[in-house]
Amino acid sequence: MFITRFAPSPTGPLHLGHAFSAMLGHDMARAANGTFLLRIDDLDQSRSRTEWEAQIYDDLTWLGLSWPVPVLHQSTRLPRYQSVLKFLWDQGLLYPCSCSRSDIRAAASAPQEGAPLHGPDGVIYPGTCRPRTPPTGPMPRDTALRLDIARACKSLATPLTYNEKGEIITPQNLPATVGDVVLARRNMGASYHLSVVIDDADQQITHVIRGQDLQEATQIHVLLQRLLGLHTPAYHHHRLIRDDHGKRLAKRDDARAIATYRAEAASPQDIRKLVGL
Ligand code: GLU
């Protein structure tokens, strides 16, 4: 069985990096006689736009990709994410956090802390809001919830492994290398880490094909799968498409937008060549 997915956020135009990721996943699914799913990562409703979503369908179709419909929208899944958060809350693994980004930067760069450490989500959370004992009572709403990663790792009976190169993640290292990640965002219900793990499981994704920029985050995803008793898919982190200065492409790189190439009369075959497929 081979089921993979491409999960763009409709917050800007797709660029060459997206084209590479989507075409690679589509090619691999086709070679394995499997399924390629498209999923719309529109959790951040303040930045998601239906125009961008329409452009995603249009660009991917132009590239020659197809997928089963209807596609899953993460914005329709909030009750599901809430029930998983409630499960983790009841295990004493979450706590509310009211720190802003600048609070975190300030606390992490306090003189006694040394140079701030960085993890998959940026500066590692210095633990300002982390309680000594797990909070009790009903799970609070409309607040960010963080995973107490040390407590979560302690609750695991056996080592964490994930199967890209048979790598073993040592849970004792995660508090220092990853930190207490956010699983519920204040105005979004869930964070990317939580939603991606639940959706991959619910859609029975067997192979996650995505960029190397997410390789570090995969440790968080494997940990969540273990905490939630979910199967860990195979992960393939592909090389990143970079601009002429070696920088990873971002949404704002309009020059590399698929739409720009289309407007200049490039063909899907040209795009394949450009990304080295
Ligand atoms: N929406 C996420 C992104 O575009 C998906 C990442 C993933 O494939 O897990 O970065």
Commentary on this structure:
With 277 residues, the chain is α/β, with parallel strands linked by helices. The protein has two domains: 3-76 and 241-275, HUPs (Rossmann fold, 3-Layer(aba) Sandwich); 78-184, Glutamyl-tRNA Synthetase, domain 3. Helices cover 35% and strands 16% of the residues. It is built from ten helices and twelve strands. It has a three-stranded parallel β-sheet with strand order 1-2-3. Helix 1 links the parallel strand 1 and strand 2 (35-40). Helix 1 (16-31) crosses helix 10 (268-275) and helix 7 packs across helix 8 (217-228). The radius of gyration is 20 Å and the shape is globular. 34% of the residues are buried. The model has no long low-confidence stretch (mean pLDDT 94). Glutamic acid (GLU) binds at residues 7-9, 41, 196, 210, 214. Glutamic acid (GLU) is lined by residues 7-9, 41, 196, 210, 214.
